[in-house]
Amino acid sequence: MCSIIFGNLPANFNLDQAQLKFAKLKDANFTNSTLRMSDLTRADLSNAIFTDADLFCSELRSTTCINSNLERVKLDSCDLRDAKFENTNLAYAFLANSHLNDASLKGSNLSNAILINTNLSRANLANTNLSNSVLLLIEDYADLQLNEETNFKDSIIDDPGFITYLNIKKAKGIPKEIGSKQELKRRLQLRNDLEASLIEAILKLSTLPNNPKG
């Protein structure tokens, strides 16, 4: 068990494959740092700064991250099951192929975040801001918790079943269905933060028809 307190750490450092299980990382500054394939299981990241950090393929199961700044963080292929990421800034976060099963993101800002092939089963998104986010090929959203303050305004969603689920849960700002890859490509290209290679990869994976019906 790691009990070192990392308060006031300098930014821009490399901790790839770091073993930080149970670590107390409150108020730490990880701006522009890399922690790829690291183990932060049950760590406390409250009030920490991870702006532009890279945590690709890291273990964050049952991690606590409250009132933290994770803007533009890379959390792709991460295990975030049972994690508590509440009232946290995750704007522009990259969450492709990640597991958010049973995670709580209540009151967090996921505006402009990218969730591709992400598992959201039993996750809690009450009072969460997902405006302008990209939610494509969502792997599972069974028992996903939402409320009338969960905001999907101007988000990009390719699954009509998921949109139906959002309507049943009375979420806010639910977007219209996307009918084709052509329309999906147009919507994605309107975002200046998406690389052309990522858009092409998304289109290859998409199950939407190539062109609008009719």
Q: Would you write up a description of this structure?
A:
- The protein has helices at residues 160-168, 181-189, 196-205, and strands at residues 114-116, 134-136, 156-157.
- Residues 1-8 have low confidence and may be disordered.
- It is mostly loops and 214 residues long.
- The protein has one domain (1-177): Pectate Lyase C-like (3 Solenoid), CATH 2.160.20.
- Helices cover 13% and strands 4% of the residues.
- The protein contains 3 helices and 3 strands; from the N terminus they run E-E-E-H-H-H.
User: What's the total helix number?
Assistant: 3
The CATH architecture is 3 Solenoid
Assign a percent range to the helix content: 10-25%
Q: What is the distance, rounded to the nearest whole angstrom, between the alpha carbons of the first and last residues?
A: 61 Å
Low-confidence stretches are 1-8
Round the mean pLDDT to the nearest integer and report it.
Answer: 93
Shape: globular
Query: Largest sheet at a glance?
Result: 3 strands, parallel
Strand fraction equals under 5%
Strands side by side in the biggest sheet: 1-2-3
- Taken in chain order, the helices and strands follow as EEEHHH
